[in-house]
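INFO worker-7 received task bundle
INFO bundle size: 2
INFO processing item 0
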Amino acid sequence: MGGTILFAYNLSESDNQFVQIHIRMLEELGYEVTASLDEFWYPTKSYNILVINWPDYFFGWNINISDEEVTELNKTLNSWKQSKTKIFTFLHDEYSHFGRGANLNLLFDLCYSKSDILIHLGDYSKKKYSDLYPDAQHHIVHHPLYTDFQTDLERHVARKQLGISEKVHLVFVPGGIRKTEEIDYCIRVFRKLPAKNKRMIFQKTNFLAKPQSLKNFIDLKVWVYFLLHTCKFNFLENIFFLQGFMKKEKLSAYFAASDLIIIPRTDILNSGNIILAAQFGKRIIGTGQGNMNELLTFLEQPVCSSEAIAALINPIQYSALVGKSLQLKIEEFSGHAMVKNQWKQLLHL
């Protein structure tokens, strides 16, 4: 048992805990674990295992990747392969959340194709990518539970902190909105709710931030877009778009205060916010894309694709686990013992 593992990643206080929790589990299993991006590019010692999470992280989440950067990553991965280090890559995303481009996509293709083991967060991506990358081994390791949110915060206390009336039926959309299709999906679901005093709050929509100037025609277009998507929805439908970084204490309050969580993702594999919403015991609805379908189904939560919204009568009419029952259910799927055991199976411990 044991060995050395390198996570090609720099830990920071603003992390969402995913890497930190996995490192802790592996240390509990007897491994010596290092987290360093510099060590990936310029290793100072040998490692038994290299763990990659997000291929677009290697160049600072930049979406404009040069030919030289593709060559540099390819050369470095080949060097790791020649050193006999086993390469494990988490398949969080099929491609980057932040954009598309031939070279940007190549970063993902390179990491996946040169991996000895591809780690999936669900069965959907395991089945799909087992066919695409038959030379790799494919294993499932679930997204772990978050540990730094106040999941026992009571609803009425959270609402008092946020200044939200007990009479409001609160819908919360967690995470950063990446495209207008995600906003459209949430608004269409929200409109199906029969509650009279309903309100929806988007956690992070930075592209809808208030413009800072009005100097030219482009600025004018930005202002018009801002006014249409804020004032209109604020006043007519009680929908609000927040911007910027939200501290975990405030994010905990929004989760705790909510009656329904909408997962906005329309075309990605995974969403950690399903895990977090379940930890708060909140009713959840989402598109069910990728691995999200099996997770929402396991948690007995409604799944509604973008195409099916028109036929949706009421997002909360379906029987769904809530409260303590839902919290126990997510413990079965993502609890420490479960995920640690999946690592043990992967590592043949």
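INFO item 0 finished
INFO processing item 1
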Amino acid sequence: MELKEILKFVFVFASLPWVLPFLKALVKDLLQAFEEDGGLLGERPSQTDLEKIRERKRREPSPLVNEPLAHVKKAMSQQSQNRSGGPGATSRR
């Protein structure tokens, strides 16, 4: 084996502690997304199982979170201060 090949394997094994948790979360999210349809390869769940799945999903917090970007929030606050004559406001004559 050449040095390049050895370095490739070392890099792959060294990156496993960071890659495996990401892949685990990705697979978990994918399985939850297809759960109402029976998973990736399974059959559709019965009506009672479907109701249980939907009830559990309603209790879980939404993974979609809306957080404004910090620089946008700062720019908006500066604009409102300038309009109200706050700090940094200039008078126009």
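INFO item 1 finished
INFO post-check item 1: The chain is about 65% helix and 0% strand.
INFO post-check item 1: The CA atoms of residues 36 and 49 lie 9 Å apart.
INFO worker-7 idle
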